[in-house]
Design a protein that fits this description.
Chain lengths: ~450, ~240
């Protein structure tokens, strides 16, 4: 395929590199030559971008057929390009839901495995691939097709869960949908005044409810540092939902790139203030539409244009339980001291670590922030990474654009095991990404 | 509705088959490859609220001998046909066709001659008890244009055939739907840069299914192309010689 002059490709953070995406319906055929697969491109950084020397990634989103569905058990097998949006559209009203769902439904099954995604229910359900996928069909680097799962080629499987697509091209995914009592959520949201109360509220909600996540106003300082809104819920029972159907929502598209300067500190401060006080009552309870509960940001398509042409990065780390409350406070103190203005700051306490060798979650507090790209972004990420290393935590590869290789090595003692699996299945590093070149030292 | 869809394993045909299955219609799919057909049949069955089984038959646009047996299999499996939908076709850029006369010959034969032959088989079956023949032509057939000299010629012929078919058989109960898509983002156009107004296959499927339900004789997908082509058709020759569109 020809590449138009100046063609670029970017992750969700809109920080582009030269290259393009080749879409295919025939994943099995096209992966023979591919360097890297890309689903819906919702990883923020360079996980789905081609290495500098290759310039092409294989787009999987047209390979989206369901290959088997058992309406008795919920077992489903599908091509890797099937999106969670499509899965929800088809199965939510039939009483089924994915065992784990991230904060957007515009992701493919292949991407959900590659990032071993977690969601609001991590403390009870774990990660998608590590805890729920039964079988994967992979095109490995030597061109052959290998099936793996918890009980077949378990090392390859563990490396593939959260392995960012670097162990083989994911062709098919096999897992169980979960039967739900109704498509509605019985939600409970709570306005929380400071960080200590927030951490306590997270613990309390997680002990009572399966879905818990919090939003923090990370510009607030001093006594109100860490104030925010805690969102929790569970599936509503059939009686609570009263058999009402789920109306399908219209989506708006963010129409243009906002100028980058608009997202300066005062704007974010104002927006955060408004969002916090919009939640006037201390606690709100009631039925919520599943889309607005699970995917609040999906309502506006291409909301990443908000951050303008320079784009943004998301920084997500987990501060382990061992570092405790003080570890989280130290992280937020560093962040506010460096003025990391962020609309979105999402906090959640994670459950046990999964099987995936590079899977992100571990017991502790996970913090995710949007950081608009500025001249000092690299320095900010470096500083945050040094803090996270000191606390014994780690970062989420699906979000990362700026981490340095030496920082990544310092926070990933599991890297040697992952490298050993790649040495066995792909010694020449045929399958690689811009991210693996940057962080793992793959050939460009 | 009981529909046979030729080309249902890919692109717009896939999207139409899905839309019909999801609303409970019964479909039977025709395509070249056994394995590919089986995978699409599983997909459609999973989408059908009633879990309808989806039958398949091998049918190759390059081999007119496969047409009658495939349509017969569809009719037998569904117990009659209410609609036959044809999305199967081949595509190549003008550049590629100019460089390769053999390829040009294949494209002209498949997209015109063989498609019309398939439609004639389908017409005979549908005519007896009334039904809809829905065939994918293209906006490329609306006026001779530089980027689609050959592909456009085949589609122009197909559009003319479908129009006349409607004139001749409409009163006897045969409904003919001629679909004219503009640029649609499918596997077929994957190597090309999407122009303005490029559509998703799901949007086209929605328009086409509505047109089949209503018996609309010509449907532009998406509708903006009706107005674009109206302008293009009215441009004088000296302008068409200058522009690259």
């Amino acid at each position: 395929m020809r590449e138009a002059a100046g063609e670029t490709i970017a992750g969700w953070g809109n920080v582009p590199v030269p290259g393009h995406e080749r879409l295919t319906e025939d994943l099995e055929g096209a992966t023979r030559e591919a360097i890297l697969c890309r689903g819906l491109g919702r990883s923020y950084g360079d996980s789905s971008l081609p290495p500098p020397g290759a310039r092409e990634v294989l787009g999987t989103r047209l390979a989206d057929r369901i290959l088997d569905f058992d309406p008795e058990t919920g077992r489903i097998r599908a091509e890797a390009g099937l999106s969670l949006f499509e899965l929800n559209r088809l199965f939510l009203r039939r009483g089924w839901f994915a065992p784990v769902s991230p904060g957007t439904q515009f992701v493919t099954l292949g991407g959900m495995v590659a990032a071993d995604i977690h969601g609001k229910a991590h403390h009870v359900d774990g990660c998608f691939a590590s805890h729920h996928v039964q079988r994967l069909r992979l095109r490995v680097a030597d061109g052959s097709i290998v099936e793996c799962g918890p009980d077949r080629e378990p090392e390859l499987f563990a490396a593939t869960c959260g392995g960012m697509g670097l162990t083989g091209h994911i062709l098919e995914v096999d897992f169980d949908l979960r039967s739900i009592p109704s498509p509605w959520i019985m939600a409970e949201s709570r306005r929380v005044a400071d960080l200590d109360q927030f951490l306590a509220a997270l613990k309390d909600a997680s002990s009572r409810l399966p879905f818990v996540v919090g939003w923090i106003d990370c510009l607030s300082r001093g006594r109100s540092m860490g104030r925010g809104i805690l969102d929790a819920g569970r599936w509503a029972s059939a009686e609570e939902a009263g058999g009402r159907p789920v109306p399908w929502k219209r989506r708006l598209t963010f129409p243009f790139m906002l100028p980058s300067w608009l997202l300066a500190r005062p704007t974010v401060q104002l927006a955060n203030f408004a969002y916090y006080w919009k939640h006037l009552p201390k606690v709100r309870r009631g039925l919520r539409h599943p889309e607005s509960f699970w995917y609040p940001l999906d309502v506006v398509r291409e909301w990443n244009r908000l951050y303008g042409r320079r784009g943004f990065t998301q920084y997500q780390c987990v501060i382990p339980d061992a570092a405790g409350r003080d570890g989280v406070v130290r992280f937020f103190e560093l962040l506010t001291a460096r003025g990391g203005a962020s609309f979105l700051c999402v906090i959640k306490d994670c459950g046990p670590e999964g099987r995936g060798l590079l899977s992100f979650p571990r017991p502790g507090i996970s913090i995710a922030l949007d950081i608009p790209v500025r001249d000092d972004t690299q320095a900010l990420v470096d500083a945050l990474n040094e803090r996270v290393i000191a606390e014994g935590g780690r970062i989420y590869l699906a979000k990362d654009t700026f981490t340095r290789a030496e920082h990544f090595r310092a926070m990933e003692p599991r890297l040697a095991a992952f490298t050993a699996v790649r040495d066995r299945w792909d010694p020449e590093r045929r399958i690689r990404s811009a991210q693996s070149v940057r962080l793992l030292g793959d050939p460009p | 509705m009981r529909a046979a869809i030729f080309g249902a394993t890919h692109g717009m045909g896939r999207a139409i088959a899905r839309r019909l299955s999801e609303r409970g219609d019964r479909v039977f799919i025709l395509g070249i490859d056994d394995d590919d057909l089986a995978r699409s049949a599983a997909d459609l069955k999973a989408r059908s609220p009633q879990g309808h089984d989806v039958g398949v038959a091998v049918c190759d646009l390059a081999d007119t001998g496969t047409f009658a047996p495939a349509l017969q299999a569809a009719e037998d499996a569904l117990g009659g046909l209410d609609a036959v939908i044809v999305t199967a076709a081949v595509f190549a850029t003008q550049e590629a066709l100019e460089a390769d006369l053999a390829r040009t010959e294949v494209l002209l034969r498949l997209d015109f001659t063989n498609t019309v032959v398939f439609c004639e088989h389908a017409r005979r079956r549908l005519q007896e008890r009334g039904g809809t023949l829905c065939v994918f032509s293209s906006v490329a057939g609306d006026r001779g244009r530089k980027p689609v000299v050959l592909y456009g010629a085949a589609k122009a012929g197909l559009s003319a055939y479908l129009e006349a078919l409607d004139h001749k058989h409409h009163d006897a109960g045969l409904k003919v739907v001629c679909v004219k898509p503009g640029f649609v983002k499918t596997g077929m156009t994957a190597g090309l840069k999407p122009p303005p107004f490029a559509a998703e296959p799901e949007a086209v499927a929605k328009l086409v299914v509505r047109a089949i339900d209503r018996g609309t004789p010509v449907v532009y997908a998406t509708p903006i192309w009706r107005w674009i082509m109206l302008v293009i058709r009215s441009l004088p020759r000296f302008v068409m010689r200058k522009i690259g569109f």
